[in-house]
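re: that chain from earlier
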Amino acid sequence: MKTIEIPYEKDRHGWYRFFEILPGSLTYLLLLAPAILSLINVTFAALFILLYILIYFARAVAFDIRILAGYRLMRAYAKLDWQELLVEVQAGVESDKNIDRPQWHLDNLKRLTTQPSIVKPKDQIHAVIIALYKESREILEPTIQAIVDAKFDTKKIILVIAYEARAEGAKELAEDLIGKYKDHFYFATSVGHPNDIPGEVLGKGPNITYAGRMLQKYLQDKQIDPIRVIVTTLDADNRPDKNYFAGLSYLYALSPDPVRVSFQPLPMFTNNIWDVPAPMRAIATGNNVFYLMLTQRPHLQRNFSAHAQSMRALIDMDFWSVRTIVEDGHQFWRSYFFYDGDYRVYPLAIPVYQDAVLAKGYIRTLKAQFVQLRRWTYGASDIAYIGYNGFIKKNKISKWNVANKFFRTLESHVTWATGPLIILLAGFVPALLHPRNYVANELPLIISNIETFGLLGFVILLYVAVKLLPPRPAHYKPRRSILVLIQWCFLFITPLIYGSAAAIYSQTRLMFGKYLTKFDTTEKAVFIPTDKQ
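^ sequence. v structure.
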């Protein structure tokens, strides 16, 4: 088998270490650039800061436009009769029923006449692997219920609860829920991931990989061709929309090569959005609109959280990495290099609803949010993997293709760390160092005017954010709606603490080889109302 696993820590040296140090070095260089350039030439420093902010502003405008387009697409998908569309894909022709059909569906039917589905809808089987660590029944059971309630034949779904054997009570919970719900599914089982398997980090990747290997044995025993099986991985709080499985079946049937594709639904952090503290609502809402935007930029799509992939592909590459705590995003790169660059992600604008961060207590919630963002920003570790496998290690991939993906990934992580700090603070640096310089003193005013104009885009963001909110729970009084809107004052603070600070932390650890080797599971508390809040 082709070697695609991340090197052990002891084997990371030379070029691999260079690429690990690169994002943090660029981040610190960019953060220091306003001060360094101001000492050299204040006018040049001002031009650098203005250029950075103007580029950032232009991207923000494009971001807002794509948010609206992504929201419209999500709403359009929600109104479709996916089951009827699947019937037509299965038959390869339009039915006589009087339903609205989008033009892209009619185009797909036409294409099927010359390029039939590799796996037709009736031949597909879905497998859902739910990772369980210390989550409670109140978190996990609604996820299973959401699968049961799907507008889809659940007798075509295999359910696997992948629990950590080291977690107290996880086995009993998994087995109890399997016993309760197994009759709804094609097959249902729980799989315990053993403790201390050599070479594994403490994380989700090893857990779902172990479950995936058990699923492989089951399919072999039943003589089920793995190309027929579409595997979705979920966290315990990930609740698929009722149209998710039908929409996924549709995309899988239309894929020219479903083995070399993964499918990314919309992560929507709205399960408990009314219950969490205001800073967490602001962060969750920001994440929601970000992933709406990505539906309009499929070339930038990467696996995140809940995602789906052919069982055939997973078997070929031995499932997920067992050496990283960011197995979801890394899975794209693992697949990309395994298939010599012939790999892509198809966005699916159908939500998988997730929890915003909520722990037991306000301070613990704030800390849990940072821990979650620290794990997400540790995706910067993939930069070394891309750089080494793409440029140093022999491969068949176009160097232009690798370079494009490498620099986009590098830029996104460096911007994650530096963007909020430069936008909010860099304009004051030249004036602090040159208090009597005209250019230095005018710079904050110019930046303020640009940012004021940029607030027009904030209206779009607010509109979509409000539209994404689920109905206000009955135990909250109407005044809660006003408080939810006030959350937006945190939008100017949270990117600094939970964006820049978390990204700088992760990149600094990579620079000094202080690797994160434990998946710090985000604490998931359940809000229990006492009376009307």
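Residues 136 and 351 are 23 Å apart (CA to CA).
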